[in-house]
Amino acid sequence: MSRDKASTMDADLQKVFGNPVPELYEAAASLDASPALAHALELRSFLALTEEQVARVRDRVHADMDPDRAMSELSADKLRFDAQWLEAALEARDGYRSALVKLLRIMPPPAQQSRPIRTAQLRATAPLPSSSAPAPQRAGAARTRRP
Q1: Average confidence (pLDDT) over 57-74
Q2: Backbone angles phi, psi at 12, to 5 degrees
Q3: Residues near 99 by beta carbon (within 8 Å), at least 6 away in sequence
Q4: pTM, 2 dp
Q5: Rounded to 10 degrees, what is the CA torsion of 98, 99, 101, 107?
Q6: By CB neighbour count within 10 A (0-12 exposed, 13-18 middle, 19+ buried), where does 41 fall?
Q7: What is d(CA 98, CA 136) in angstroms, rounded to the nearest whole number?
Q8: What does pLDDT average to over the chain?
Q9: What does the CA dihedral 64, 66, 68, 71 come to, rounded to 10 degrees?
Q10: Which pLDDT tens digit goes with each residue over 103-143?
């Protein structure tokens, strides 16, 4: 989804994750990719798509308003529709940009992202008692009620 289209946040993504966007998509395809990277690239794809929509509507309005165009071709209804479309596309773009900015703001520095967290595995060093050892006399005995 919109991997090949540029977005206005590509430089920020490269700064935070330390690689160009095409390489980030390759890294996200690996099994050990961070969820934050996958989420950031998903938001980036949506952003690129909405920015393309904004550009299409802008270009269509510019073409409709071209001074060389015949006045009889100008339609107020069409311009109102384009204005509504542009408003929706700009709102979506602003939402995706805002979400991506927030995500990138909370990201750890690139040096910390590539190090997976390892936990030490504890091992028992004391020998277990042998199974032939007698159990304590009351172990597992049911309590009886006394009158």
Answers
A1: 92
A2: -65, -40
A3: 43
A4: 0.69
A5: 160
A6: buried
A7: 66
A8: 82
A9: 50
A10: 999 876 555 555 444 444 545 555 555 555 555 555 555 55
